[in-house]
Every structure is written in C-alpha cells, then in structure tokens.
C-alpha cells in the first residue's frame, strides 16, 4: 500500500505511525514544508514543498485563518499535482487538518482514501476561548461568527475526508456531532519501555547543576512558557512554594516563544513579564533554586521526569500535552489543573491530584503535602504508570489501534471497532 502523510511540521503527531507503517512493508511518503530538501527518514520518503505565507491582503478579520488555510492548501495542491505527474498515486492519505494542507486533495487523487488528524475544533465558549478572564474577559461582538470561520477550513477537510482520528475523547467531542461520528479516538502513544522510572537517574544540565532522586525537585514543563499552559499561575505561586520548601529546586522547561494565544501586549516574553511582576517577592538566594532550562533534548527530558518528585501541569481546556502522559509513564506524582482533557487521564487521588486552574494557593498546598509524603507520591506514581501501560502504551496499545484505523480507512470499512479508552 502507498501511504502519503501531510504535516507542515512533519513528523509531528505521525512520528511513530509513519515509520511503523514503513517498517511493516508499506511505501510511505510525507509532504512537508519543514525541510528544504527531499530525504529518507526511518523508511519514510520525506518530500519538501516551499510555502510562503501570503503578504498583506485586504480581508475581513474573521477570514484570516481560513485565508491562510486556503493559501497553504493551494500550495500543497500544486505540489501534489506535480507529484502525481511524476507517478505518485497514494492509496491512503493522512493529513493534519490544522493548516489546510488537505483542503484540495480530492481534486488531485479522487480515488484515494483520505483521513485527517482532528486535533481541535474551537468553540466560542466552554473551552479555551474566554476561559481566562485576565486575558480574554471582555465581551466580543461577533465572537461566535469569528470562531465559526476559524473552524471552517478544518471542517471542510473533515467533511471531504473518509475518516478522522483524534488523540482524546474530549478533543474528538469538541467537533460538531454530525462530524464526530467520523472520528476514531486513538492516542499518539508513549514508549513506556524507554520513558520509564529509573531510581538511579541523574540529570546534568550545564549551567544549572546535577540533579538526582536525592534532590527535592519540582518540575514544570511547557513547549513555550505562556498562559495557555498556566505559566502565569505557576509563577505567581512560586514565592510561596520557595518559602514552604527551602530545600526544593524548581526546574522550569520551555522556550520563550508562543505556541498558543499571543505574546504580552506590552512586549517581551511571558517569562520576562512574570519575573518582573514577582520582583522582590523572591529573594536573590531563592532565585538560585529556580532553573529556567529552555528546551532540552529527549534523553535529558526523560531524565528530568525521572528525578522529579512532583510534576506540575496546567492547561486551559485545550489539546492535551504529551509531556503530561510522559510524566505519568515515568511514575511522577502529578499535581494538575482540573481542566479537560486532563480529567480524561488524571483521576483525582488515584493517578494524580487536581486543583482549580486559577487556585494557586491550592496548588501550593498540594505540592507541599506531596513533597512531605513519600508513600502518597509512590502510590500516585505507580497508578499513573499503570494507567499509561493500560491505555496509552505505544507498541502494545496505540500503534495497533492506529493500524486498525489505517486498515479501516483503506478498505472503506469504518465499521471496524473504534479505539476506546476507558
């Protein structure tokens, strides 16, 4: 079978599935704008296309997202026409719908079976938009129509596709009911053989020091340090955490860019903004126990989780971070915000402890209590890992689910049992 993946930042969510299909004997291609040259990656023939964002155009502001998607979709359409002219005719196409790459594929390969990765569908209320009044609390005339247009490109792609796949039930359920029926739920997968507890782990971070399980380490991870992932809530709780835990070390992982939402309106980064806001609330000697590591490599990230005594995770009601499930796989004691889709993986007092996203003092109490209770930490960590082994293990659970989805997509038999996670 010939399979084509489309993802502007390939491999992205297809990092496990695409090479596994290649290893299984399929001819696997990927089309992406991430690279400049064609190359082979783990058995996948990665083909580059060039995308230049549209220059300033006079558009209604509600059409900004769909215009970008159409523009990128048109670029991909031309690239796919060229590939078809050179003999590429995929049996199955799998595309992330977030950037419009699958918008016009039916016009290139009308007989191909098309599946889309359905990461999120926005809502005017009840999810991330309007969740945090500090940054989005003002009434907005026309918010509903704006969000409807924001979703339009993703909706059109799912409508024209034969099937969809989503990593969590909550993310799938965000889609309109008439389209939700197309979506199978199957998580991306965690390699629990590699991302596992290691009592002897040692993390060496140049410029920060060496950390082991003998240290009282509290970890907090974002791809980028920003409000969507609760960075402001964590930072405002940091002075109390430092005061209560005079021997603790706080490792804060993440870059200073923006993955979701927007940068501070007055300029700078969210880290700069929060450090300035805290000002004299944190003494210079206590800042020495706070380590902003930036982004770290895969092996160091696993070791970071392995030495963590308590891992703190916050998010708006938005897509679930891989880092949370990886922390569970390592057996971390987790303190997390009581937001969807966190509740899908964290059961209160079983696989972690939850608090209201905006209740920083409660977060401090939970972290403080767990740092004093080694038995509770061990019990929570063991239960968290058991949950991942049961429902989110890459090789034994998630890849088989994804393979069944691919097989159903290729055969047109979407009546195959869909992946369900209890």
From TrEMBL:
Domain Glycosyl transferase family: 25-193, 214-386
Domain of life of the source: Bacteria
Assigned keywords, A-Z: Glycosyltransferase, Transferase
Gene Ontology molecular-function annotations: phosphatidylinositol alpha-mannosyltransferase activity
Gene3D superfamilies: Glycogen Phosphorylase B
Documented EC number(s): 2.4.1.345
Group of enzyme by EC: transferase
Matches recorded under InterPro entries: Glyco_trans_1, Glyco_trans_4
Family label: Belongs to the glycosyltransferase group 1 family. Glycosyltransferase 4 subfamily.
Protein name: Phosphatidyl-myo-inositol mannosyltransferase
Organism whose genome encodes this protein: Palleronia abyssalis
Taxonomic lineage: Bacteria, Pseudomonadati, Pseudomonadota, Alphaproteobacteria, Rhodobacterales
Gene from which the chain derives: pimA
């Amino acid at each position: 079978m010939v399979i084509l993946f489309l993802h502007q930042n390939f491999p992205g969510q297809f990092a496990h599935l695409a090479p596994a299909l290649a290893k299984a004997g399929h001819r696997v291609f990927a089309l992406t704008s991430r690279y400049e040259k064609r190359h082979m990656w783990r058995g996948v023939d990665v083909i580059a296309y060039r995308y230049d964002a549209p220059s300033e155009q006079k558009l209604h502001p509600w059409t900004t997202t769909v215009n970008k998607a159409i523009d990128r979709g048109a670029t991909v359409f031309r690239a796919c026409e060229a590939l078809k002219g050179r003999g590429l005719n995929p049996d199955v196409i799998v595309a992330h719908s977030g950037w419009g790459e699958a918008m016009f594929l039916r016009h290139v390969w009308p007989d191909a079976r098309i599946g889309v990765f359905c990461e999120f569908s926005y809502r005017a209320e009840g999810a991330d938009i309007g969740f945090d009044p500090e940054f989005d609390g003002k009434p907005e005339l026309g918010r509903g129509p704006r969000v409807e247009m924001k979703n339009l490109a993703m909706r059109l792609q799912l409508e024209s596709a034969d099937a969809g796949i989503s990593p969590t039930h909550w993310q799938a359920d965000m889609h309109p009911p008439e389209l939700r029926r197309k979506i199978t739920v199957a998580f991306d997968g965690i390699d629990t053989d590699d991302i596992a507890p290691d009592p002897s782990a040692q993390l060496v971070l140049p410029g920060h020091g060496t950390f082991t399980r003998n240290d009282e380490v509290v970890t907090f991870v974002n791809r980028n340090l920003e409000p969507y992932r609760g960075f402001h809530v964590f930072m405002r709780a940091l002075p109390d955490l430092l005061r209560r835990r005079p021997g603790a070390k706080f490792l804060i992982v993440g870059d200073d860019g923006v993955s979701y939402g927007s940068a501070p309106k007055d300029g700078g980064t969210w880290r700069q903004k929060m450090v300035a806001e805290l000002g004299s609330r944190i003494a210079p000697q206590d800042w020495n126990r706070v380590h902003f590591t930036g982004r770290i490599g895969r092996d160091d990230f696993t070791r970071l989780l392995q030495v963590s005594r308590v891992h703190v995770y916050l998010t708006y009601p938005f897509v679930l971070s891989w880092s949370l499930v990886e922390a569970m796989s390592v057996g971390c004691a987790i303190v997390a915000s009581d937001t969807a889709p966190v509740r899908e993986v964290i059961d209160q007092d079983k696989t972690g402890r939850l608090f209201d996203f905006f209740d920083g003092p409660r977060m401090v109490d939970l972290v403080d209590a767990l740092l004093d209770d080694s038995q509770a930490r061990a019990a929570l960590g063991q239960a968290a890992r058991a949950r991942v082994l049961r429902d989110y293990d890459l090789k034994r659970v998630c890849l088989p689910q994804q393979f069944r989805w691919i097989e159903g997509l290729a055969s047109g038999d979407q009546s195959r049992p869909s992946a369900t996670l209890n």
